[in-house]
Amino acid sequence: MAHLTSSSHPAAGLEADALVVIVAKDCGRAVLADGHGLPPQATTHLTTVIAELELTGDPGEVTTVAAVPEVRAPRVVLAGAGDLTGPDPATREHIRQAVGAAVRGLESRRQVAVVVPTGATDLGAAVAEGAALGSYTPAKVGADKSPRTQNVTVLGPTDGPTRKAVKRAGVIGSAVAYARDLVNQPPNLLYPESFVASLAERAKGTKVKLKSLDLGQLRTGGFGGIVGVGQGSVNEPRLATLAYSPSRPRASLAFVGKGITFDSGGLCIKPADGMLTMKSDMAGAAAVAAAVFGIAELGLPVAVTGYLGIAENMPSGTAQRPGDVVTMRGGKTVEILNTDAEGRMVLGDCLALAAEREPRAIVDVATLTGAQVIALADTAAVMGRGDEFRTRVVDIAGAVGEAVWPMPLPSELRPALETPNADLAHKGGREGGMLTAGIFLGEFVPEGTDWAHLDIAGPSFNSKAAHGYTPKGGTGFGVRTLVGLAESYC
Fold this sequence. Notes:
The protein is of the alpha/beta class. The chain has helices spanning 40-52, 88-104, 121-134, 160-184, 192-203, 215-220, 224-230, 283-298, 343-356, 370-376, 387-400, 433-442, 479-487, and strands at residues 2-7, 18-26, 29-32, 62-66, 75-82, 111-115, 150-155, 208-213, 238-244, 252-263, 303-313, 325-327, 333-335, 361-366, 380-384, 404-406, 424-425, 450-455, 461-462, 473-474. Strand 10, helix 8 and strand 11 form a beta-alpha-beta unit. Helix 2 packs parallel to helix 3 (121-134) and helix 8 packs parallel to helix 13. The radius of gyration is 23 Å and the shape is elongated.
């Protein structure tokens, strides 16, 4: 992970292992982005390199140049960022991706400096965020647990807003790294009890208070959804709450996360290949936990409580069966049709509990449906009751650089959840599966409460090669949107 600082020191004279300079596209050709501040010989040399190597300046293009004249750093890294003349959110994301790709390729270099293009404060924030996200290195099991720190200097303005933006980027980077670490843990090491233990360790010395309900307390509290999902495993389920309560908060928010530490599908077992990434089925809970810790570290004047429904979905003689009817928190009865649609059951219980506290808004985050992946791939789906709050979440996600797309909850699909055996069935048919899952969750949120549901099944885990600031494995998707939402109430 990166330790971030800001400096107005001239880029050419700074002592560092590598200097990162942004390359943009201008009228179809690659050029050094404005504001680099390099001396004439260095500029001429790099401009010649760009031309001779026929660089494109496209996003993801990273080129290392050694021994650049008049530059003290032994190597200059040219990071392609594409067109920087578009709308501000697009430009900031291009910068994040470019810096992330460059820093990710410099993981063995301890001292890195990055020049802020044009010297603009908002781009300085994007540079810092890209460095913080791109410096993440997954830890192998059994390897040294101490995080490798990379010192990254953001070269540009050093005014108050820039220093604040750089500090914020460090907090966001740390929060996202925690979510990624949780998702990357193998399922024999991360199960409900150890997940809660990790939360307890992380909460030490912070303003976040952790409470956890064990199996007996879940049964007594009427959390039939969580109990039913977890009853087939030797690892008993948990419900964890993380509460950050500043004095005189401006709003009260509830974040709900799906925490299935491994999803075999239960008795409706998945095919073997379908289980390869199922350790990541707790990515929603990881994002919620990381966001609460990040919000607390930033000291935002917003009360936030995270609700994590944590269980392991396994087949056994005690496992939940298709046709079972369970009673959820709040008293609704639900008929189970497919034990591989377990996430909505733990979320339903957590949503009902969150609603009891009457927060200003509720957001749930979950790797919920394969239908989301088929429809939107690595773009998350955002659903909710009413357009206004859903639009707010979509706009914030776009501003922070997380790709989402608004989806409806058509009332005409609600009959698909009707059953003669309970208040509702827990899933509909194949048609609109992502949407009927959202409709099901809405049954546990009172009318009039601002609520949004984020289905992050696609973007939560990257099975392909690393790119931009995104590593292979857990991505930490959702953390930045949740923090941004809390900031919008400040």
